[in-house]
């Protein structure tokens, strides 16, 4: 039964996120699929539940507002436009390192110095890969840090939810 | 009529929509929704046990799917056409045509405007040059990011004082937005009353008023790290810098040509304009203090 889920593409995109220093191929975002991001969001919520934080509503709300904000910003900043599905898909894929952080938070508390450094590193990793994919897919030059900053804000809010 | 509707979903995946770089496979999802919603709407008695293949082969459900997806496409076109009426998208795009170098230099200018000599915006055949190419041009990226960062930092500050709850974030955001709107309206009103002919558009004004959030963020962060002393030091520095920045920038926009070149021109009109510029510039530090002092204890 063809559900329209292409496992090979999902795996490719996941690998792109996991290797932040490798240059991304601009054509991988040609089909927006929300299956992978859905899985990652649910996994993130599950790890939050394990840590005892029942704040699902805030996660949904923040991700919706964040996606909308990124969508508006990218449409205004790039020459070509971008569809909402594409933005949601990329942001969802780059949530993968955040899942690592929240599963870490289940066992150890993140409020010490080590926790802060780890959190900062993970946020940097997420935003860097997200901005890398956006830049290569939308052919924006000289704007990677500018795209990475709002992504870092969004993932920072997720990290705040994981910590507090 | 049904034939033309049926052609739409077939050509959609292959056709390059000028607004999109990607083939949006979400249309496949809307096609699926159309198939599920429309039969119910048409009163088609679809038993839940009927197999998928027979369902799709039925011409009525085919037409229903086509109708559903064409509705989605029409809705999208409608939004695209009308959004330009409410939000001037191309004008907004001008303010976001920035790159990293510009943002870096502009931030430096906001904290240290004392050495910069030439504040004139360069023009290119009657239209101002994009912010990418001219550091004096106003942009909306920095104010927008600064605003959002300010709301988050305020939430963080309240969190460290154990006064945090996520609804407080919303409260902070709406109150800061309300103050900004009030400021913009007040200045527009005074500009109208003074009957000044400037090329200071509303978006320009929003951009200039948004720059103070950068200083506010700096102050609050220093306050979080180093307590009240750090807060007052950094806030004081940022207040003076923003004051100088605003005076030098607004002078070129509000005052008449002659006065902008430093020649003091007599006449009540120009004096009024000078007072207006000073008032706007002086309001910035006041608001900066007002909006942040309750965050640093």
From TrEMBL, chain A:
Residues 17-161 form the Yip1 domain. It is a multi-pass membrane protein. GO terms for biological process: endoplasmic reticulum to Golgi vesicle-mediated transport; protein transport; regulation of ER to Golgi vesicle-mediated transport; vesicle fusion with Golgi apparatus. Belongs to the YIP1 family. InterPro entries: Yip1/4-like, Yip1_dom. It comes from the Eukaryota. GO terms for cellular component: COPII-coated ER to Golgi transport vesicle; endoplasmic reticulum membrane; Golgi membrane; trans-Golgi network. It comes from Leptonychotes weddellii. Interacts with the COPII coat components Sec23 (SEC23A and/or SEC23B) and Sec24 (SEC24A and/or SEC24B). Interacts with YIF1A. May interact with RAB1A. Interacts with YIPF3 and YIPF4. This is Protein YIPF.
TrEMBL record, chain B:
It comes from the Eukaryota. Has a role in transport between endoplasmic reticulum and Golgi. One of its GO terms (biological process) is endoplasmic reticulum to Golgi vesicle-mediated transport. The keyword Membrane applies. The chain crosses the membrane at residues 140-159, 171-193, 205-225, 231-251, 272-291. It is found in: Endoplasmic reticulum membrane; Golgi apparatus membrane. It is a multi-pass membrane protein. Keywords: Endoplasmic reticulum, Golgi apparatus, Membrane, Protein transport, Transmembrane, Transmembrane helix, Transport. Pfam families: YIF1. Belongs to the YIF1 family. Its main location: endoplasmic reticulum. This is Protein YIF1. One of its GO terms (cellular component) is endoplasmic reticulum membrane. Residues 1-42 are annotated as: Disordered. InterPro entries: Yif1_fam. The keyword Cytoplasm does not apply.
């Amino acid at each position: 039964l063809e559900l329209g889920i292409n496992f090979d593409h999902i795996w490719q995109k996941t690998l792109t996120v996991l290797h932040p220093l490798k240059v991304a191929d601009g054509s991988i975002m040609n089909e927006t699929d929300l299956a992978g991001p859905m899985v990652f969001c649910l996994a993130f919520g599950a790890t939050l539940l394990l840590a005892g934080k029942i704040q699902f509503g805030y996660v949904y709300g923040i991700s919706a507002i964040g996606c909308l904000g990124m969508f508006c910003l990218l449409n205004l900043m790039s020459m070509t436009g971008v569809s909402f599905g594409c933005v949601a898909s990329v942001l969802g894929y780059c949530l993968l390192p955040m899942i690592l952080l929240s599963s870490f938070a289940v066992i150890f508390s993140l409020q010490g110095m080590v926790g802060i450094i780890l959190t900062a590193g993970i946020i940097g990793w997420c935003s860097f890969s997200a901005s890398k994919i956006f830049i290569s897919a939308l052919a924006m030059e000289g704007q990677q840090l500018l795209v990475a900053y709002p992504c870092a804000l969004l993932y920072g809010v997720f990290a705040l939810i994981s910590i507090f | 009529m049904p034939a033309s509707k049926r052609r739409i979903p077939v050509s959609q995946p292959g056709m390059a929509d000028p607004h999109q770089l990607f083939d949006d496979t979400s249309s496949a999802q809307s096609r699926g929704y159309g198939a599920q919603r429309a039969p119910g709407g048409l009163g088609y008695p679809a038993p839940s046990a009927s197999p998928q293949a027979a369902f799709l082969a039925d011409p009525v459900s085919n037409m229903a799917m086509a109708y559903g997806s064409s509705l989605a496409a029409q809705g999208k076109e409608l939004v695209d056409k009308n959004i330009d009426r409410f939000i001037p998208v191309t004008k907004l795009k001008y303010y976001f045509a920035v790159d990293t170098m510009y943002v870096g230099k502009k931030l430096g200018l906001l904290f240290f405007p004392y050495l910069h000599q030439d504040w004139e915006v360069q023009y290119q055949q009657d239209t101002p040059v994009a912010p990418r190419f001219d550091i004096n041009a106003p942009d909306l990226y920095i104010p927008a990011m600064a605003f959002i960062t300010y709301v988050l930092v305020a939430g963080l500050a309240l969190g460290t004082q154990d006064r945090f709850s996520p609804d407080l974030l919303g409260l902070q955001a709406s109150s800061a937005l309300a103050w900004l709107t009030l400021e913009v309206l007040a200045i527009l009103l005074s500009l109208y009353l003074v009957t000044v002919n400037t090329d200071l558009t509303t978006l320009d004004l929003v951009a200039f008023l948004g720059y103070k959030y950068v200083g506010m963020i700096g102050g609050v962060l220093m306050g979080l790290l180093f307590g009240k002393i750090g807060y007052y030091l950094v806030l004081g520095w940022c207040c003076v810098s923003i004051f100088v920045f605003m005076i030098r920038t607004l002078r070129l926009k509000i005052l008449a040509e002659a006065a902008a070149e430093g020649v003091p021109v007599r006449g009540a009109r120009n004096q009024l304009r000078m007072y207006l510029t000073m008032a706007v510039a002086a309001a910035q530090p006041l608001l900066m203090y007002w909006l942040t002092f309750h965050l640093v204890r």
